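quick one before i forget lol
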Amino acid sequence: MIMVTLHSRPVITALLVSLSSVMVACTQVAPSRYDQVQRETTQSDQVQPGTSPRDRQTDRPTGAKKVVNGRRLNRYFPRSGNGFSVIPAQEKRGFAEYKLNQGGKTVAMLSINDTVSNPAAAEKFERSRTQIGGFPAVSQGQTGTAVLVGDRFQVKALSRNPAFTSQDRAKWIQKFDLNGLSNLK
């Protein structure tokens, strides 16, 4: 039989509180990979090194338009299939990015960027003579291809493997829901 003395009560109380905390922590469900990426890449209200208060705001007005929260861009990305995996990589105000993997290796990066906060990013499309999916397209160096959707959203594919060609980039850009994205306000 265990004797409880007046001096052992605080120890027993502390032990029970600790044990119940461990039990609660063990019963929580692990987040999905999307939840984890969301938490890691979405800027919080807390000050993070290298960010200004302006950078931490979401849907911040710029002129007459607001920058779209990156979370709202996810639905317009292509789906995995035919040996390719489309995996969330980063999300923040006005931006979402996914890895395009094949055989466990990243062959390209796919992204959508809201140009409201950076109008110069949209200006390069004014001189475009080519189109992809009915939208003005530009090459960005040897490894990048982008289109401007709805005069606002830059949809980009960047090769991470030399075998992923400009034709592959154009094909994957067309797999985005470009028409749906053009209606996003």
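fyi Residues 17 and 23 are 10 Å apart (CA to CA).
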